[in-house]
Write a structure and sequence with these properties.
Chain lengths: 281, 428
């Protein structure tokens, strides 16, 4: 059985995925690995890939093809080909959620909206430009000011009763906005509710530049933030599809492209039998 | 990373282009040293270089100086010098580079730049020029004439518009007679208009050669090489001869079915000027995909001739006015620009459109977001929108731009292979 890998070197974290033919119409995921990217992009990619292989109990030489994606894709010394994360997120999202027509990807330093065709191809896309508003970095800064971890703030924001209005979506100046509300004695959950809502609205205006069509699948590390998911669903007015592998979606798509390079064809959606896809509805 | 295919076509015309441009800078240097020939500082868009020939005067184009600096990676110092004077970070970077050059005494070739005999603000489309040329006049002490060219509100200018511009051209003639002490040579002016007519005919033929598959040259990156002689020399015999030589070279490539790559994979239409400080890097991003520009709006900034307009020696003043009013992309309205791009896509058989938004040029770039939506959503033509600047080297995020370009070509490639919606709706 042929094995392929996708390595997504993002600005904050590096993700690796191994996929394998299973004799049927669809491949299976053998292993996942996640590591902080840090300053040494090349090393981060190697670490994630090697850890993935260790987890799967295979040698790196067993992997027939590796596709790199993400901003550090050209630094992957062992990669056989590169694809942008835009194509990879569309590919991965279409495979895991075949009804996907729009992808909203929120990563560490960028946010993007992708219009996806019926076979998982990219029809159109927009990204944030030269500004970290609407990204994981914005939320990380907000968490720092609130003295909470990034994993906590989403849950806390769900408790908001009267979300404050955050005037800025600037990743730097949001700190002074938050400090101002803290000085006024506003409740932490209402401040975080406001932070999440501000980003959701910003993301909505970005996504409107492509045709927003259901189903909408959210990908990227920020998809793990339940507060962000709910805020986005609120402004979009419809549920989001969230795969358990949302964080790995770029790597999943890259691995599928890699498998295609090995000559494997497969059907979308069969994975759903073994990997539950949650829906916000 | 994949190897970048060699893209630059280096024929005889490139050497001749260098000679022509160096000769021009030489004349400007001579004017600075000896006060002769007379010089006129002018805007490229819809320029009236033919009129200058009636005085044996030489044009100074601040935009050409600015882009020459940027492409040689020398634009940041003068820009910062202008900002030190109080120009805002989001002012037009061409203006800041030009003003900074005057302040610091910088020229693209290291030669001298003369004090213009006249600063002629042929105010076509770009209202920033009014202030820019006022500042140049103030810095140099040269007299200023504000030649007001009404914006094209309808498909064609009114007779009143034409008369209004012609009257101003007559005033410029009288003013230059006084400033240069020379009598306007009408016959030479008429001859210059005729050289322009012939040059424009050849240039138009060149631009139609890129309808061939593969295109014999890149109508964005290579066209820029040809734009200098087009604006400086088109009203002279040597300008006509230069373009005749270019036509012969490109025609030969067509006959041999030679493109700019071993295999042309994508055909594009470009809107907006290139990021000159990162010109090579930017070009390579398209070369990697073997993508060739087959048409561009930027190459029509100085004049739009491929759709039929020509200067007319029988009506020299009127045809110069018509050129300024209606036959350069800057003074035309947005719907006309849409139509121009759409014609390029259809008649030049393009796969998609690249819109390059220039951050410090609000006038040319305003509305390009809507333009992207129009072509993508209304017409189904794949359109990529990217942002940087034509002069300010700091407004260029290589990784982000590269990512967008790669993703655009990945989707085009997929569509070509599968015949899916994107590709099918390209030629509407």
């Amino acid at each position: 059985m042929r094995i392929a890998a996708g390595v997504d070197v993002g600005s904050t974290q590096t993700k690796a995925i191994l996929v394998k033919e299973n004799g049927g119409p669809s491949p299976v995921i053998l292993a996942r690995a996640l590591t902080d990217t840090g300053a040494n992009v090349r090393k981060a990619a190697e670490n994630a890939f090697e850890e993935c292989c260790r987890t799967a109990g295979i040698s790196t030489s067993d992997v027939g093809f590796v596709v790199g994606t993400g901003y550090g894709r050209y630094k992957i010394s062992f990669g056989n080909a590169q694809m942008t994360e835009i194509s990879c997120h569309a590919k991965g999202a279409h495979f895991l959620c075949p009804g996907t027509r729009t992808v909203i990807d929120m990563g560490g330093q960028d946010a993007k909206a992708i219009s996806v065709g019926p076979s998982g191809e990219v029809l159109d896309f927009v990204m944030n430009d030269k500004c970290a508003a609407g990204t994981g970095r914005f939320l990380a800064n907000a968490a720092d000011v609130m003295g909470l971890s990034l994993d906590e703030i989403g849950q806390v924001s769900l408790q908001a009763k009267r979300p404050v209005k955050i005037a800025t979506v600037c990743t730097v100046f949001v700190e002074s906005d938050i400090l101002s509300y803290l000085a006024q004695g506003k409740r932490g959950e209402d401040i975080l509710g406001g932070v999440h809502l501000a980003i959701a609205k910003r993301t909505l205006s970005l996504a409107r530049r492509v045709a927003i069509e259901p189903e909408i699948t959210m990908t990227g590390g920020v998809a793990r933030n339940v507060g962000m998911v709910r805020a986005l669903e609120e402004v979009l007015g419809c549920p989001l599809k969230i795969s358990p592998d949302a964080h790995f979606m770029g790597a999943v798509g890259a691995a599928l492209f890699a498998l295609e390079k090995l000559g494997q064809s497969f059907e979308a959606g069969v994975w759903r039998d073994t990997h539950a896809v949650s829906s916000g509805d | 990373m994949a190897d970048i295919p060699a893209t630059e076509y280096r024929g005889g015309i490139h050497q001749r282009q260098k000679e022509l441009m160096l000769d021009w800078y030489g004349q400007l240097d001579q004017a600075a040293q000896k006060g002769d020939p007379p010089t006129v500082s002018m805007m490229v868009s819809g320029n009236c270089v033919e009129l200058l020939e009636g005085f044996g005067a030489v044009p100074i184009y601040p935009e050409v100086n600015a882009l020459q600096l940027a492409i040689r990676h020398q634009s940041l110092d003068p820009i910062l010098a202008a900002e030190d004077m109080g120009y805002a970070p989001d002012n037009c970077a061409y203006v800041k580079a030009d003003i900074g050059c005057y302040v610091k005494g910088i020229t693209p070739t290291g030669g001298k730049m003369p004090k213009p005999t006249l600063v002629l603000c042929n105010f076509v489309g770009c209202n920033t020029y009014a202030k820019w040329f006022e500042h140049v006049a103030a810095l140099t002490g040269a007299p200023l004439y504000m030649l007001d060219v009404p914006f094209l509100r309808n498909d064609q200018p009114s007779q009143a518009d034409i008369d209004y511009v012609v009257r101003q051209l007559h005033e410029v003639v009288a003013l230059l007679e006084r400033l240069t002490g020379r009598t306007f040579d009408y016959a030479r002016f008429q001859q210059a208009v005729d050289w322009s007519r012939q040059t424009e005919e050849v240039w138009s033929q060149i631009k139609h050669l890129s309808q061939h598959v593969p295109s014999p040259f890149d109508a964005y990156f290579d066209a820029i090489t040809l734009m200098g002689p087009l604006y400086v020399h088109r009203a002279k015999r040597e300008g006509l001869e230069f373009f005749q030589a270019a036509l012969a070279e490109f025609q030969q490539k067509c006959d041999l079915k030679q493109g700019i790559y071993d295999q042309e994979k994508f055909r594009l239409v470009f809107e907006g000027p290139p990021p000159y400080p990162h010109f090579r890097t930017f070009r390579d991003m398209f070369a990697k995909w073997k993508a060739c520009a087959v048409a561009s709006t930027y190459s029509t900034v100085g004049g739009l001739w491929e759709f039929g307009f020509r200067h007319d020696p029988e009506r020299p003043f009127e045809s110069v006015a018509m050129h300024m009013l209606a036959h350069n992309v800057t003074n035309r309205n947005y719907l006309q620009r849409y139509e121009q791009i759409h014609r390029y896509v259809k008649e030049w058989k393009a796969d998609g459109i690249i819109v390059h938004f220039v951050k410090s040029c609000r006038l040319f770039s305003a509305g390009q977001g809507d333009m992207r939506d129009y072509f993508t959503k209304k017409l189904g033509i794949p359109t990529l929108y990217i942002e940087s600047d034509l002069e300010y080297p700091r407004y260029f995020s290589e990784a982000q731009i590269k990512n967008r370009i790669d993703a655009f070509f990945e989707s085009l490639e997929h569509a070509k292979h599968t015949g899916s919606r994107v590709a099918q709706e390209v030629h509407v």
